Amino acid sequence: MNKSKLLFIGTPLALAISTVLNPAYAAVNIQCPGDKDTLSTPASVDAVPSLGNPGYDPKVKCKHLGAGDGFITMADGREMFILGFSDLTGVPQNQSASHGLLAATSTAPTIELSEGDKFYLSLTNVGMLKRPDLFDPHSVHFHGFPNAASVFDGEPEASATIGMGSTFTYFYDIKEPGTYMYHCHVEASEHMQMGMLGNLYVHPAQNGSSYDDDTDVEVKDYTKFAYNDVDGSTGYDVEYPIQIGSFDSVFHDEHIAVQPLPFADMKDDYAVLNGRGYPDTASATPPAVPSEVDALHNQNLDSSDDIATTQPLSSKITAYAGERVLLRISNLNVTRNYTLAAMGLTMKVVGRDARILRAMDTNNPLQPLTQTGTDLYYETNSVTLGSGETADVLIDTTDVTPGTYFIYTTNLNYLSNGAEDFGGMMTEFQVI
């Protein structure tokens, strides 16, 4: 069967009708205005900067996401239905629907930005192949970001949401570094439980400068930092985003079965890091592509949209002895708080909720915290996060014996994959 026939059969009826009857309103229309020279061709209609274009503004960053449904493979082999986002960046506009159908990933594509960026995020609602009865709009909520305009916030009562077959471009003027996250804010308890969650973080303007951290016995120079600390105290060598989450398999099963959803009885039984349970969290080989996703995208004559995995992000942490590691930990779970601990390693918490842990200088209250004030960093072996909270954690491997350590939840009943023990919310920290 050729791809055009496959698309026609697979496209949700609502999406097809909406596109045919309302062509002016239901369309993929990506915006990425990166050219400084307005007389030249736009930087890219496919939201990919033209590297050879001398007029392109390097501070403009663009990304294109699809919102729809899909499947993931849990660590015990179970295939679970999800709603989520897919990365359509660089996909030609007229192929976005076919690429985005049943292509949702868990966790969602990572968004990595720098202070000073002008970020254009286009979101296309491709519809839900397995739930053609639903007409759900979607949105992106940049959690913790101080939007100047509420239209870009993603909260449905006060901002734009995207109907099936349509695209909306968000704009963010990136001012404040730190660890954030993003999620769909439409019918949030449902869409977030179903998997519409992703890592998002912002590098500080201080990156690229060299600072000595006087607290480091080796007086090491750092050029990468969690925040604009002015003294190098949040410097690190390597960073890893770690998003805490969990799923209620009954809720997901009832969703695809088109049954009333048990909102008041959510009891998550699959705990994950970056969309995977252990041992998949620490594996370089991603979980198997679920059968229906494989059949739609990989087993046809046009292989241009082959999907290698719907769970792209490993949580394995690797560092050379003496390196300092930054963990960007976030929790977007809708049912409970979680505690994440490091066995045999010291966590130094330097930021919470995209703010450096530094007190205000009472003698200079108008000065930014990065310039004055006392450090409120603290050392611990665990951090507890509620839904919507983040933590920036440094782990220094100086004097740490090479070997494999574990990052795991102290909620020990969540060290399982469904009914299968010895899995769940755990990953490996390898010191070489």
CATH fold call: Immunoglobulin-like
Task: Report the average pLDDT across residues.
Answer: 87
Strand content: 25-35%
Low-confidence stretches: 1-24, 40-48
What are the defining features of this structure?
432 residues; mainly beta; seven-stranded mixed sheet; five-stranded mixed sheet; globular; disordered N terminus
Structure, explained:
This protein is mainly beta. It has one domain (about 5-430): Immunoglobulin-like (Sandwich), CATH 2.60.40. The chain is built from 6 helices and 24 strands. The chain has helices spanning about 5-10, 15-20, 95-100, 190-195, 250-255, 290-300, and strands spanning about 60-75, 80-85, 110-115, 120-125, 140-145, 165-175, 180-185, 195-205, 210, 220, 240-245, 270-275, 315-320, 325-330, 340-345, 345-350, 355, 380, 380-385, 390-395, 405-410, 415, 420, 425-430. The strands form 6 sheets. Strands 11, 12, 14, 16, 17, 18 and 20 form a 7-stranded mixed beta sheet that branches. The longest helix is centred in the N-terminal third of the chain and has 9 residues, at about 15-20. About 45% of the residues are buried. Mean pLDDT is about 85; it is low at about 1-25 and about 40-50.
How do the strands and helices of this protein lay out in sequence?
Blueprint: H1 3-10, H2 13-21, E1 60-73, E2 79-87, H3 96-100, E3 108-114, E4 118-127, E5 141-143, E6 167-173, E7 178-183, H4 188-193, E8 197-203, E9 211-212, E10 221-222, E11 238-247, H5 249-256, E12 270-273, H6 291-298, E13 317-319, E14 324-331, E15 338-343, E16 347-352, E17 355-356, E18 378-380, E19 382-385, E20 389-396, E21 403-409, E22 416-417, E23 420-421, E24 426-431
Parallel strand pairs: 1-4, 3-8, 11-14, 13-24
Antiparallel strand pairs: 1-2, 4-6, 5-7, 7-8, 9-10, 11-12, 14-20, 15-19, 15-21, 16-17, 16-18, 16-20, 21-24, 22-23
